[in-house]
């Protein structure tokens, strides 16, 4: 057998390994310069800081809290082992009783994603457990993420 054919399997393996999976992320890649909280703060005008998960407690008494999504409101994800600092997304629009479209930063590392589907999978239909679109699989992600609810960008005195 010619040498070329004996090396072909090894060559193919090297080529395939070099291609890599462009959707393989390390935990560290989520800690880059683009973060969800500063993005949401800039877009909504909410005067909140710190980790995304802390926004719910910080906003109590300052901004209205709700479990009904409205455009411009911020969906606050709880901290978990998968998202240790929590996450925040801005509601773009409601598609159905259980699906909204959001804009957010760094759900996929280093990206701003717009009009991303988020589906309520909570037992009480109160948006306390959601699944989020995951572009690498072109579908909702398999994991469900706990949330606190929505923060309105209006002061709590202004909310009806």
TrEMBL record:
Protein name: CHAP domain-containing protein
Domain of life of the native organism: Bacteria
Originating organism: Gluconobacter potus
Family matches, as PROSITE patterns: CHAP, PROKAR_LIPOPROTEIN
All residue ranges annotated as the Peptidase C51 domain in the record: 11-131
């Amino acid at each position: 057998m010619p040498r070329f054919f004996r090396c072909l399997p090894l060559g193919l393996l090297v080529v395939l390994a070099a291609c890599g999976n462009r959707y393989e992320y390390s935990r560290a890649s989520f800690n880059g310069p683009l973060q969800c909280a500063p993005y949401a703060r800039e877009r909504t005008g909410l005067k909140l800081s710190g980790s995304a998960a802390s926004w719910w407690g910080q906003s109590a008494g300052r901004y209205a809290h709700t479990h009904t999504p409205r455009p411009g409101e911020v969906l606050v994800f709880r901290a978990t082992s998968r998202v240790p600092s929590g996450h925040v997304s801005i509601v773009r629009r409601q598609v159905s009783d259980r699906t909204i479209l959001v804009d957010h930063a760094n759900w996929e590392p280093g990206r701003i994603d717009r009009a991303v589907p988020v589906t309520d999978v909570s037992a009480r239909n109160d948006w306390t457990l959601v699944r989020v679109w995951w572009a690498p699989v072109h579908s909702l992600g398999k994991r469900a993420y706990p949330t606190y609810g929505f923060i309105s960008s209006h002061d709590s005195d202004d909310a009806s």
